[in-house]
Amino acid sequence: MKKLIIVIFSILILYGCDYIEINNLVIISGMLIDYKDNNYYITSQIIENENETKIKVYKTKGVSIEECLTELSKLSNKDLFISHLKVIILTESTIKNKNDYQDYFLRDSKSKMNFYVYYVDDKYKDEVLNIYKDNKGSALYIKDLMEFNNKIFSSSTPLSFLDLIYKQKEYGIDEIYPNLVVKENNGEKVLYLQNIIGFNQNKEKIILDDKDGIFYNMITNNIQKTSINIPCDNKDFTISLNDIKTSYKWNNNIFNINVKTNGKLSSYECSYNLDSVNSTKKISSIVNTFIKRNINDIVKISVNNKIDFIGIGNYIYRHDTDYFNFKNNNWNNKLDKIKIKVNVDTTITSIGEMRK
């Protein structure tokens, strides 16, 4: 709580605001934005600042974000404070129909714009900010959820507000959203990151599952480390990947995706004798082939659905502006005209104590 008070006090000084009692602030930590029938429906999670662990959730309706938040201020009888905002959660209707919600956060001088953006299906929208009201609140839990996933699994992907704005304003790149769902486990409802979601030019929903998410993050350098299971001799082995680095190159009208990574075997059921140098090379080759195949599958999803969530067009635009006139052409319809080549180089750095 002391840390939060220090942050609030510092921001008030920074922005030159008139003095406001902290107890007269409504601190918004999370917000869900829905849009239907020409109205915004906003669910706001707030922290009562006299006790940081006390969470409240309000629902407001209005023709604009400002009107919804003005109503929130009236309901709580406090001034708004959005600099502590951690997450914004968007419904499908909002994403498809109403991008001007962003204007409020871009204009408001107290918006730090360092929050993250998520997608939620309509069937979960009334629950997602209400699950952890007796703890630290869903907004902070979602923040921790993404940080843990990004550090250990990399099956989801973070989308910051500024990154979202960049992708919507730049040529040749489409945004993709981490998907929040509500699961029930042992009689208790929990929040869960499941799949990543995009929408193409026809507003069709494109879903990447957890495995797809790993390789999407690999392509886009949004991955720290991960583990993958790979078939081998009708069995499989598990390899932990780290130091994953991906680079692009546009050369002779070919878009090259180059992946380099190190790997450590963590389980092994294959018949190859790991004491043999040739067998180790064989394992490296199998890993390379597996990663390459899965990355090509992600590329196919992008091309077939006409959604450039990899940013192929953006890279070409910045390196070869004469190739396409992006202002006068629908880039996503030209994705299938691009020759894309995937190269993977995996170095096995450890086989541990596993032998056959």
Q: How is this structure best described in words?
A:
The protein is an alpha/beta fold and about 350 residues long. It has a domain at about 220-355: Nutrient germinant receptor protein C, domain 3 (GMP Synthetase, Chain A, domain 3). The chain is about 30% helix and about 35% strand. It has helices spanning about 1-15, 65-75, 90-95, 100-105, 140-150, 160-170, 210-220, 275-305, 310-320; strands at about 25-35, 40-45, 55-60, 80, 85-90, 115-120, 175-185, 190-200, 205-210, 225-230, 235-250, 255-270, 340-350. Strands 1, 2, 3, 4, 5, 6, 7, 8 and 9 form a nine-stranded mixed beta sheet that branches. β7 and β8 form a beta hairpin. α7 packs across α8. It is globular, with a radius of gyration of 23 Å. It starts with a helix and ends in a 6-residue tail after the last strand. About 35% of the residues are buried. The model is unreliable at about 5-20 (pLDDT under 50).
Topology:
Blueprint (H helix, E strand, L loop, with lengths): L1 H13 L10 E12 L2 E9 L7 E8 L2 H12 L2 E3 L5 E4 L1 H6 L3 H7 L8 E5 L17 H15 L8 H9 L7 E9 L2 E12 L5 E4 L1 H10 L5 E8 L2 E17 L2 E15 L8 H28 L7 H8 L19 E12 L6
Parallel strand pairs: 1-4, 1-5, 5-6, 6-7, 12-13
Antiparallel strand pairs: 1-2, 2-3, 7-8, 8-9, 10-11, 11-12
Named CATH topology of the domain at 221-356: GMP Synthetase, Chain A, domain 3
How many helices? The count is 9
The H-and-E topology, N to C, reads as HEEEHEEHHEHHEEEHEEEHHE
CATH architecture assignment name of the domain at 221-356: 2-Layer Sandwich
Major sheet summary line: 9 strands, mixed
Strand content of the residues, in percent?
Answer: 25-35%
Number of strands: 13
Which superfamily, in CATH terms, is the homologous superfamily of the domain at 221-356? Nutrient germinant receptor protein C, domain 3
Which CATH class of the domain at 221-356 applies here? Alpha Beta
Report the mean per-residue pLDDT as an integer. Answer: 88
Query: What does the radius of gyration come to?
Result: 23 Å
Low-confidence stretches: 4-19
- Cα shape: globular
State the end-to-end CA separation: 56 Å
Helix content: 25-40%
Main structural class:
alpha/beta
